[in-house]
Amino acid sequence: MNVVSTMRYSRRSYMTADRLPAAADLERLYLGMLRIRLFEDAVLRLFLANEVEGTTHLCQGQEAVSVGVCDALDPGDAVAATYRGHGAALALGVDATRLMAELLGRESGTNGGRGGSMNVTDLERGLIGCFGIVGGSIAAATGAALAAQLTRDGSVSVAFFGDGAVNQAYFHECLNFAGVRRLPVLFVCENNLYGEWTPMAAVTAGGDIAGRAAAYDIPAAKVDGNDVLAVRTAAADAVSRARRGDGPTLLECLTYRHKGHSKVDPGAYRPREEVDAWLARDPLPRLAAQLDDDAVERAHDDAEAELQRVLAAATAAAFPALGTPATATKGSA
Amino acid sequence: MREVTYREAVRDALAEELERDERVVLLGEDVSLGGVFNATPDLQARFGPNRVIDTPISELAFTGAAFGAAVRGLRPVVEIMFGDFLGLVVDTLINQSSKYWYLTNEQASVPLVVRSAVGAGARLGACHSQIPTSLFMGEPGLTLVAPATPADAKGLLKSAIRDENPVVVFEHKLLYGRKGEVADGDEALVPLGRASVRRSGVDVTIVAALRAVEIALEAAETLAAEGVAADVIDLRTLRPLDSATIAESVARTRRLVVVEEGPPTGGYAADVIATAVELAGPIAARRVTMPDLPIPFASTLEDAALPSADAVATAVRSLA
Fold this sequence. Notes:
The complex is a heterodimer.
Chain A: H1 23-48, H2 63-70, E1 78-82, H3 86-92, H4 96-103, E2 127-131, H5 136-151, E3 157-162, H6 169-181, E4 185-191, E5 194-195, E6 198-199, H7 200-203, E7 220-224, H8 228-243, E8 249-254, H9 272-279, H10 283-288, H11 293-316
Parallel strand pairs in A: 1-2, 1-3, 3-4, 4-8, 7-8
Antiparallel strand pairs in A: 5-6
Helix pairs in contact in A: 1-2, 1-3, 1-11, 2-3, 2-8, 4-11, 5-6
Chain B: E1 2-5, H1 6-20, E2 24-28, H2 43-47, E3 52-54, H3 59-71, E4 75-82, H4 90-97, H5 100-103, E5 113-118, E6 143-145, H6 150-162, E7 167-172, E8 179-182, E9 196-199, E10 204-208, H7 212-225, E11 230-234, E12 237-239, H8 243-253, E13 255-259, H9 268-280, E14 284-288, H10 299-305, H11 309-318
Parallel strand pairs in B: 2-3, 2-4, 4-5, 5-7, 6-7, 10-11, 10-13, 13-14
Antiparallel strand pairs in B: 1-8, 6-12, 9-11
Helix pairs in contact in B: 1-6, 3-4, 7-11, 8-9
């Protein structure tokens, strides 16, 4: 169970651009971000202890994008995320213990230990995949939207991707395809200013990611990606537009990863002043400032207690059994 | 049974499966007008623009989207106009579609079919003539289908559409006009993963696929006049190989020639020989392939580069 005090943090009541969020909404969003922050911090510790093997891409600092967007979705919607996808998974409601177990390569993981950090999938929660190839999520969500349009099931889909992906063919081809077919999809760019180690501006002609949507006749918004309420509001507008058949939206969420790109990267290429400026805009304290102290403390107690349960269960879980028959295709011998 | 062309067999397979299962959708360039090879005429008029979808010239986008749609319950059939363009969709096929069933711990498979016209001999030059099967031979989770006759063009495509996994169907562009007897409906189904013995003999096994099957049969006819009787095996499915049929034949003949319209390295011919050796022990074997060069345009050069019945017969005669 990863559901933290469902009584206290009820599912969203409402939130639209013209209505102020209720205290319960703020508290729920804060807890959502905090769970991701603590989870990622724990992954880093496990990684440094060599318990999480391989590599890992952490999203501390970008929690407001995952939480703000996923909070605007309904059950039945589809999300395609990236190799930096733990935040999206948790925000969608993927069981934190199963997610952690997957990162640890355990049989009880979301993917039975077969996928690892970069391939987390949970179809029951609408997570159609995390994609290790930059831009892969864009086509997957476009396809989910195509299925929604053709079956008229009323669902919308979301592609999360980074600023690096906007220079992939996936981005341009899929925005065009979704634009001409008016597919019910949100293209959510988490612009954290660096594609791996290279500054976005140095490799992105024009430098205006949201501006690229105009060429495809797709509405776009540039959003403060460290303001969960701004993300939530923009996402809700885009979801409404998609659900009523008015096609895709591109959201460029300006944000920043507190850590490096991956395990080999301490992020030393980033100017200290830039890092400090973004740390000062950390999405968690910004929202905490709108909550009363009791609510913040409650969220921390709950999230910390959940994390301890998650770690205890996930680290105790078994590795995949050897000798279990496996096939690469369904229905084959 | 009706006599139809390979092209009509493809169209009929698509029409029957579109009719049978509303989750089946067809995506491709100009498919509403039949496409460059006229394999999909009248389907949009019959099934509507939401089932038969003209796409932008964005192979990565519409094949990638077909993958996502397959995960969400559709059974898309994608047409990639020329096999040479499959390079544009390799990521979708090998990083996403083929691995999904295993990597998701069997949460869902990807019922996606990609059809593509392949093959040389039409003077279309190096980038409109290849049979790029070797790009995909090493990919677990992918099924590769290569029909040589109208009956197989229909039956294998229908089976591919009904299969729960990603299947790439290679259709040889020089075979589209060939005629043959073809059944309707479920009678037409041809199972994936099973080769067909096109001719029986005791002296040598000749294995081929696509248009190379005709070449193998022509060579077998020549050899018969010389008193050499050949088994001719049409693979029909390149991956997974029907190793049982290959092994059974080679165990009798101890001689194997594999004909492949493609370069010598990394193709199915190498896999067939390795499989035969592993399963049947020491044998005499040869490959008849194209040179290790791009496919040339000039008719003299292209014809010389293609596998020929003479080359196959010569290879057979060279075996001890």
